[in-house]
Amino acid sequence: MSLLEEIDKIKLQVEAFAKENAEEFRLEFLSQKGKIKSLFGEFKNVPNEQKKAFGQRLNELKEKAQEKFDELQRSGKRQTQSTISEIDTSLPGIPHPLGAKHPINIVKNDIIQIFKKIGYSVSEGPEVEDDWHNFTALNFPEEHPARDMQDTFFIDKDPDIALRTHTSSVQVRVMENQKPPIRTISPGRVFRNEAISARSHCIFHQVEGLYIDKGVSFADLKQTLLYFAREMYGAKTKIRLRPSYFPFTEPSAEVDVYWGLKTETDYRITKGTGWLEILGCGMVDPNVLENCGIDSSVYSGFAFGMGIERQAMLKYQIDDIRLFFENDLRFLKQFVSLT
Ligand code: PHE
C-alpha cells in the first residue's frame, strides 16, 4: 500500500470513528504515537517529487482529525453538563427519621419548667445511697416500721448501702450543704422492690420539691401545689388535700386532682370518686431540719414528691406503666410531635 493510500485509509477511519470518547480518539490518531504522527515520520522516505502532494494530503488529514477531536471534546462537555442539569435540585431531600423524647423526659421537663418559673433550682444526687440520706436523716428511725413503706433494694455486702427509694435523699444533701432560703426540686430515678404490674414498677421517676425559709406555712404549700396542678392539668383544675403520714413531714397530706366522671374510664381510674391522687406532701418535720444542721426554731419549710410516670399516665392517658420501660418504638413514636 502506498503512503497516499495509507492516508486515505486513515482518513476513512477518522470519519468512521464511532465512539464518543475524545481521549480515545486522540490516543489513536493525534498523540505522539498515534497513526497521523507516525505518517509524518514517513515524510523523509517520500520521493522528492511526491513530497508536496503527500504533505498536502497529510495536512488535510491532520486538520480533519483535529476538527473531529474538537467536536468530540465539545459534545463530551455537553454531555457532562446535561447530566448535571438532570439533577433536580428542587426535589426534597431524603428525610432522616427523627427520634422522639421519651414521654418521661417530656413530663419531667414540663414539671421542671413549671417550678423554675417560681424560682426553684434543680438538684441531683446519687442513685446508690447510704442509709443516712435515704432513711435516717429523714426521721425513719432504725427498725421503725415506716421503713417498710418503701420496699428497698439493699446491697448484700453492706446493709448501709441501698438503691434510693425516693429523691428525698437529694433534699437531705441540699439541706446539709446549703443555707436557707432553699427552693429546689430534685428529679431522678428511684427503685423499689415491688412486683411489676400495670400500676407499679421496680424502677420509676420522681420529682420532689423542698422550700425552706423563715415563716413558710402550710398555706404556702397549698398555694404552690394549686399553682402546679393548674399549670400541669389546666387552669380550672381543682385539688384537695387529704391527711396522710410520712416520717419526714408533719403534718402530711396527699393531694388529689379532680378528674371528673365523664367517661367509664374516669369511673375506673378514680374508683368512682372523680378524684385522683397525684402527690404526697407536708411541712418538713423539725427533726429532719435539725438532722441536716438547720435551726428549726428559726426556719420552717415544706416538701412534696410525685411520681413522673403517674403524671405522664394521666396526661397522655397511658394505662400501663410497663410501657415506659419496654422501649417499643410503636409506643415511643407517638411522642415525636411533642419533642
Ligand atoms: N418521698 C415521698 C415518697 O417517695 C414523697 C414525699 C415527699 C412526701 C415529700 C412528702 C413530702 O413517697
Describe this structure in words.
- This protein is an alpha+beta fold.
- The protein has helices at 3-16, 22-30, 35-41, 48-85, 103-116, 131-134, 168-177, 218-233, 264-269, 286-291, 308-316, 323-326, 329-332, and strands spanning 121-122, 128-130, 154-155, 158-163, 182-191, 203-213, 239-246, 249-258, 275-284, 300-307.
- The chain has 2 domains: 3-85, no CATH class; 103-338, Bira Bifunctional Protein, Domain 2 (BirA Bifunctional Protein, domain 2, 2-Layer Sandwich), CATH 3.30.930.10.
- The strands form 2 sheets. A 7-stranded mixed sheet has the order 1-5-6-10-9-8-7, sandwiched between helices. It has a 3-stranded antiparallel sheet with strand order 2-4-3.
- Strand 7 and strand 8 (249-258) form a beta hairpin.
- Helix 2 (22-30) packs antiparallel against helix 4.
- It is rod-shaped and about 130 Å long.
- The two termini are 83 Å apart.
- The mean pLDDT is 90.
- Residues 166, 168, 208, 246, 249, 280-282, 303-305 line the site of phenylalanine.
- Phenylalanine (PHE) is lined by residues 166, 168, 208, 246, 249, 280-282, 303-305.
